[in-house]
Structures are given as C-alpha cells and as structure tokens.
Specification:
heterodimer, A: mainly alpha, 14 helices, B: alpha/beta, Rossmann fold, six-stranded mixed beta sheet, 17 helices, 32% helix
Chain lengths: 367, 505
C-alpha cells in the first residue's frame, strides 16, 4: 500500500517534468534550434562531467541552499502550516553571519560554529513569529509570513546601505569576512563544499526526526489529523511552535552557509528568491526530505544548464530555464487534471511488469 | 383546507451506510398549516426534506405539489417552484450586510450595477410585510444566531416561497429566541406560508404546530392533530417498541465511586450554556448510560471529563482527586480512556497506518521510545497485539486505517484505549454506523470491561443501546440532567419522556 503511494508520487513528479519538457520543446522550436540539441546542451550544462570545473559540481553547489530552504518549507507543510517566510529567515541568517563574522574575535574553530548557531537561532525566532500569531491569535500564516519577508528584505537593504556598509564604493555591501572562516570548497570556483555535506546531513536528520521519533510522530499527526492529535493528548500548539522554529532555523542556516561558503559578505539584492524556491522544492519533492534533495538538485541543474548551456553556447536566453521550472511546477499544481490518466497508465505498467516478472520466473523454472 | 404537498410511497436507501432512510413514506401537508415532523435521530426526517428540496433523489415514489407531480433535480429548481429550506447550519456570507445576503444571487439593479438603495428598500418592505424586523444594513457577522436565522428565512421569502422547510431550527437558539421564533412561525402561517417544521423537541412542536407526523426508522408511524395528542403519546410513537438487542448481562456489582461530577457547567464561546448543574457519580463495575437526543450537552460532558475543554463551573473528582487543570495526557495516564463519537476524524487518523494509529497516547512511554527514538519493533508488536486479540479483519500493521470497515476501525480504537487498562472508560456512540455483528462485539467488550471492574460512561442517542447496556441511566436535556433512573425504573417510556424535556412522575 505504502509503496504504491510513494510510487504514485514519483510517477506524478516524473510526468510533470516530462510535460514541462514537452511544452518547452514548443517554445524552443521557433528559435530555429533543434529542441533535442537544446536539451542535450541543457543537460550537459547541468550535470556534465567535463572541463576544469565540472558543471555537476556547480549544480551541486547551487543546490545546497535550495535543499535547506526546501527542508525548511517542508517542516511547515508537514505540520499543516503553510508558512512562506523562508526568504525572511534566510536573509536574517545571512545578516547574522555577515555581522558576527566581522565583529566577533574568536579562533576560527570556535567562531564558525558560533555563527552557525546564532544564524539558526535568529532564523528560528523569525519562524516563530507567524507561528505564534497563528496559534495564539488565529492570524493567517500566509499573510503574516509574506509581510515578514518584506520586512526582512527591506531590513537587509537598509543594513547593507548604512550600518554594515564596508566602504563608500558604488555597491552597498558589508565587509568581507576574514578568510580564516570561509568554508572549504571541494573544487575551487564551484561553490560545492562543506555546506553541501551539512545539507545532506540535515536531510538524513530530518528523515529520522520525522519518521523515527515520537516528536516527529506527533508532528505528522498534528499536520494530518489535528483532531486526532488533540484527542490523543498531543499539545498541538507546542508541536507547531517547535516545528516552525526548526524550519526557520534551517532556513537561517541556509543564509549563513551562503555567506560563509560562497559570498563571504552580504550585499544589496542578496535576497534573490531562494526562500521562495524552497517552497517549490518542498512541494515538488512531495514534502519528503529525500524528494527535497533530488528536486533541489534537479532545479539547480535546470537553472545552471540554462545559463551555461543555452545562453552561452546556443544563444537561447537563459530565462528558458526559468520557464521550464515554472512549467514543471505548473504541471504538479494541476496534477488532479491528468492524474486519472497517469493512474491508469501506472496500474497497467505494474501489471505488465509483474507479468514479465512471472514469465521470467517461468522460463527460469523451465530451464 | 386542501392538500398542498402529497408524499406518495417515497423510498430511499443509502448503499454506503446500508440504511433504509425512507421506507414507503406517504402523508400529506395542507396549505397554510404548520406541520411538524418528529422522530429520533436517524428516523429519516432530514432525508425526506432533502428529497422534497431537490438535494437528494428518491429511489421510488412521487411528490405532488399543488396537485402536480414534482421531483426536483436541484435546490434551485425547488426554490423556483416555491419551496425554500432553512438548514440547521446557516449559509451566509459573514462580511456582507443583511440586504446583500438576502438578495445574494438575485441582486436588484441595472446594467450589472447593484442598486443599493433599492435593495435596502426591498428588504425593509419584506421585513414589514412578514413582521420580521431587521436592519438591512447590519453586517451579518455582528448578528445574534436568532437574527441570522431571520436572515435565512427572509432570504427564502424574498424568493417568493410558498413552503418553508425548517430543519431543527431551534437547536441553535436560546430559550428566549425560541419563544420569539415560534411566534414568527405562527405569523408566517397566518400570512399563508406553509411551514414544515422538523424537530424532536416535543414541547415546541405542541406549542406551534397544527398537525404532527411522527417518523421512526424511515417509516411514518402516524399523523395526528396537535390538539388531540400529548407528549407521552408522541414520545411513545417516536420510541415505539422494537426488537431490543439482546445482550447477556450478569448483574452489576458496583464498587467504589471512580468519577464524581458536582454541579458541572460549561458555557461556550458564544455564551450558550451547553452544560448546567450536572451532578452524577460513576462507580467501578457499572455502566452509567447517558441518554438524550444528540446536541443536548453530551459532547460538552465528554470533552470536559477528557480535558479537551475546561468546564466553567463545578468539580470533577476522579479517584479522589480534582481533574480540573490537568492535561489530556495526564488524565490518560491517570486511567481515563475515551472512545470518541467520531472515530474517523477524532479517534483515528485514516491516512496513517494501523501501527501509527495504535501508537497515539503511548508515543512518549518508556517502552515505546528510548532517548527520543521510537522503538519500531515494540510499536509494531503493540499494533499486532490489537489486531490479533480483537481479530481486526483485513488489517496489517502497515496498512492505512482508512481502508478498514467501520467495525474494524472501532476495534482498533477500542483496542488502543483498553490496552491502557483504564479505570474509567468513556464510550461515546460506540456503535454508530456499525453492522449488527460489530455492534454485538462492541457491546460484549463493554460488558467484559465492566465485569473486570472498570467504570463505564456510555453516551448514546440510541435508546436500545442505553436500555441494553446501562445499569443506571441519566438523561440529558438542554445541558441539564433531566432525570436519573436505576434498575427497574429504566424503561423506554420514562427515558423517552425525559429525553424530550418531560419529567417522570
């Protein structure tokens, strides 16, 4: 039973991707470039393993913050809160890192963990705001979290323009962090480094937390069957607050890792929608940590391939990558429209596969 | 008076729940009368009204309105033919004004613009015509429940309905509002509107109606002139004498008191008293049955004891200690188990597996989780024990509970709750919607627990169930304990009388 559900999820995601690619074909055709070629280039630009810096490494580097914001959004979905404040949490996590990294004078081995913890805490606290408003006052979390995102983005613009501004140069940006606390990158210029391992670790921890612990059990019950949880004595308010703190903390950590491992400072325009992307990742990934991991890599790949492959080698605007992602999300969102067909196809497929399996067994028995 | 609506041999069978909701129903309604339809829960009153209003289609039979055969495909058809219905749950737009709500869907105006003044004038003249005063500009969310109901009635009258169906209209009203409302009904009837009034509160029915039709188990028992009948006679018709489910039950041996309620009261957020001055004692080794028509305070009573809501007054003494202030979890640990009325959304999580459902309430116990990690083997063994010892057909530890039949779902709830070895077991409507075999099983389980010394609080709106199981019976009416009966005094006539607000003499 459970296997079938997971199977269906994967089939739906795959069909959304296929449909997205199909429609993109139609969009590429008028440019005169063969869609097959375009997708070949897109793929090698995303997951290629050639050249000095493999495109795959770059993709994995870019996937890192997406994995984390995707996990952050997933916690909200699982507990039944549609909080979209990951962008704000991400921004505050980054600001905390950029500020502490310059201000605190500590040995690097102590400073880095301190910065990470501070970023997690501030992201978590920022995540608590819409949760408290919802639980205590019944404020709609979507509205409050959109507003909180605006506050965070504007706060960032102000802070980098004035208090944190490093020089009076043209660009408003904070000071560069001391090189001793930059996070290690496996391949220079790829952005792929320690942060990626941390993200993978969090994927595993999240999986264990949600499916193997009593707290995760309570979280899932509150999300899926709130009345059942309340009847069973689960303190739903506590569970929601705790979960939103964890989610916020992970988004905050995403911002922190981008600063420590990648940009080494914050600048105007730092908030580029990574938090929002986390929502798509969580949705496409079926609110499952491993799904989040795969989808984050896929989306980062499409973006990377569009930039490296399409724009540079084929002169097709890289925005096509964005269009492709949007199409995929669109097809997941309207899943109900084509789901019955996919369902039929899938059950046919299962029958065919089991037949083949049986025949194989027969032939083996005969032999 | 001529016959206005004629029901002829209406049958309706629900395959999903295996219920014959209407069984060859035939009777007629005269024009301009207030006609009450009475019956217990599940007697088929609402189904019949839904058929008349076009929300459901009958399997067979015909309805004649004004001499012409009519079967409505949808409520809008019914309204177009002059039949309006006011549901128990109001269907209003909270942020709109009264006038906007009344004219929703048939706004007055020209060229796609709404003429606000015309709408207000229209509502004013409507409310004067029918003597239903209301401020057309008031915003609906600020109105009391009584006024909301008036808005709903005006909404129907604005569409020129000749027949008004009211489904349990007084269930949500305060006693003062009820008085006012009944006056309104008489007023409407004298203005020529035919009123169909569904209720099981017999006093109201006697006060307001011209004729009364009583239904039981999908059949019409009879139609009488209101002037020629009385509460005991109606109660007798409603409850009747049916085959009582036979349960082998040794005599109870009640022991010490387990739960004592003293003057318990609960007032909800909108100021309605759901419970008032309820005092009762439940002893170990006995089944205390709480009878009553649904919605008379049973939910509040159960929720107070389980800790889902805090009572506004009174005391709850469990094993000598006050319960107030302790959480649901603490009460569960102290030995209160609860089989809720709604097993699908409250008692279980239908999307989760049997193991996950069996785990609720145990997840933080030492043997189920260690250092913050669930002990998978132990959780699954626990679920397996429940499946095996209650022989839950079709269930495996990993299958979703939502796929099971109602009886098997209930077995899982019962199994989980009894595995705590409770001192007090609350069972709320334990056999609702179950087939005969499952009912028997559940009843046997309850009696077995009683004989093992558990105090049992049985809440049921099924009189037969109360009669078959209870050692003592308390009857709730309007949130009060209308009466308490013991051993020989327990019979359906007395309970039926108490259920509808009468007193035992």
């Amino acid at each position: 039973m459970k296997n079938k559900q997971i199977g269906m999820k994967i089939v739906v995601s795959l069909s959304a991707i296929m449909l997205g690619i199909l429609v993109s074909f139609l969009l590429i055709a008028p440019t005169g470039v063969s869609p097959y070629k375009a997708f070949g280039v897109l793929f090698s630009g995303a997951f290629g393993i050639s050249g000095k810096v493999w495109p795959l490494w770059i993709t994995l580097g870019q996937a890192t913050p997406l994995i984390l914001t995707g996990l952050a959004a997933m916690y909200g979905f699982r507990v039944g809160v549609f909080c979209i404040a990951q962008e704000g949490q991400y921004v505050f996590g980054a600001l905390m890192a950029a500020w502490l990294g310059v201000q605190l004078q500590l040995p690097p081995w102590l400073l880095v963990p301190c910065i990470m913890i501070a970023s997690i805490v501030i992201g978590g606290l920022y995540g608590l705001i819409p949760a408290i408003l919802k639980v205590k006052l019944g404020v709609n979390e979507i509205i409050s979290s959109i507003m909180l995102n605006n506050i965070a983005t504007l706060a960032l613009e102000y802070l980098v323009a004035f208090p944190l501004r490093a020089d009076s140069g043209q660009k408003a940006q904070s000071a560069v962090l001391p090189q001793s606390i930059w996070l290690f990158q496996f391949v220079k210029g790829s952005r792929w480094g320690i942060s990626f391992l941390l993200a993978i670790l969090l994927v595993v921890i999240t999986y264990v937390y949600i499916w193997k612990t009593p707290r995760g059990y309570e979280l899932r019950m509150v999300g899926k069957a709130p009345l059942f949880a309340r009847y069973g004595g689960v303190k739903s308010d506590h569970v929601i607050l705790r979960t939103m703190f964890i989610g916020g903390g992970i988004a905050g950590l995403a911002g922190c890792l981008e600063v420590l491992g990648n940009y080494h400072r914050v600048m105007t325009g730092f908030s580029s929608g990574l938090g929002f992307d986390g929502l798509s990742v969580a949705m496409l990934g079926g609110s499952h940590p491993f799904g989040v991991l795969l989808v984050a890599i896929l989306l980062a790949g499409i973006r990377q391939g569009a930039q490296l492959g399409l724009q540079i080698s084929l002169k097709i605007p890289r925005e096509l990558g964005g269009v492709l992602i949007a199409l995929i999300i669109f097809f997941v969102a309207i899943e109900n429209v084509y789901r019955p067909y996919v369902d039929k196809l899938y059950s046919k497929l299962v029958v065919v596969i089991s037949k083949i399996g049986k025949e194989n067994q027969k032939t083996r028995e005969v032999q | 008076m001529e016959k206005f609506i004629q029901f002829d041999d209406i049958c309706k069978y629900y395959t999903s729940s295996n219920v014959q909701a209407n069984n060859h129903v035939s009777f007629s309604i005269n024009s301009g009368e207030v006609h009450a339809i009475c019956g217990e829960n599940g007697a088929g009153k609402s189904t019949l009204m839904n058929i008349l209003f076009g929300m459901e289609q009958p399997d067979s039979g015909t309805i004649q309105v004004d001499g012409k055969p009519m079967l409505f495909k949808s409520p809008s058809d019914a309204i177009a033919s002059g039949i309006g219905m006011v549901h128990q749950h109001f269907m209003v737009v909270n942020s709109f004004s009264v006038a906007q709500n009344i004219l929703l869907g048939s706004e007055l105006g020209k060229y796609g613009f709404v003429n606000h003044k015309r709408e207000v004038d229209f509502v004013n003249s409507l409310s004067q015509k029918y003597h239903l005063p209301i401020d057309p500009n008031a915003i609906v969310e600020n109105l009391s429940v009584g006024l909301l109901q008036r808005v709903e009635i005006l909404k129907m009258l604005a569409r020129n309905v000749k027949i008004l169906i009211l489904d349990e209209p007084t269930a949500v009203l305060t006693p003062q509002e009820v008085k006012e409302f009944l006056k309104t009904l008489r007023q409407l009837a004298s203005d020529g509107t035919t009123i169909l009034f569904i209720s099981h509160k017999l006093q109201e029915v006697l006060d307001v109606s011209d004729r009364i039709t009583v239904m039981r188990k999908g059949r019409v028992i009879g139609t009488t002139e209101t002037a020629a009948t009385s509460i005991p006679e109606l109660a007798n018709m409603m409850v009747g004498r049916d085959v009582i489910l036979q349960v082998d039950k040794p005599k109870a041996k009640p022991m010490q008191a387990v739960l004592e309620l003293r003057n318990l009261g609960f007032t909800n957020g909108s100021g309605v008293k759901k419970l008032e001055n309820v005092s009762l004692t439940i002893k170990a080794g006995e089944i205390y049955g709480v009878a009553g028509v649904s919605g008379n305070g049973q939910d509040a009573l159960v929720s107070c004891i389980c800790g889902m809501i805090e009572p506004s007054q009174g005391k709850m003494i469990f094993e000598g200690k006050e319960l107030k202030g302790s959480s649901v979890q603490q009460r569960r640990r102290q030995g209160i188990a609860h089989v809720p009325e709604d097993r699908i959304t409250v008692g279980l999580n239908p999307f989760a597996t049997v193991t996950e459902n069996a785990l609720m309430g145990y997840q933080n116990r030492k043997d189920f989780s260690h250092r913050g990690i669930l002990n998978k083997k132990h959780c699954e063994a626990h679920a397996k024990t429940i499946i095996d010892s209650y022989s839950v057909a079709g269930a495996s530890i990993g299958s979703p509970v939502g796929k099971l039949s109602g009886g098997n779902m209930q077995k899982i709830v019962l199994g989980r709750e009894l595995a705590t070895h409770p001192k007090l077991l609350i069972v709320n409507q334990p056999t609702r919607g179950l087939d005969v075999g499952s009912i028997e099983f559940v009843h046997k389980m309850i009696i077995k627990e009683r004989d093992a010394g558990v105090a049992i609080l049985l809440v049921s709106v099924e009189l037969e169930e109360i009669l078959a199981l209870s050692d003592r019976v308390g009857v709730l009416f309007s949130g009060r304990l209308q009466g308490e009966l013991e051993s020989e005094a327990i019979n359906e006539h007395t309970i039926g009388l108490l259920m509808v607000g009468g007193t035992c003499t």
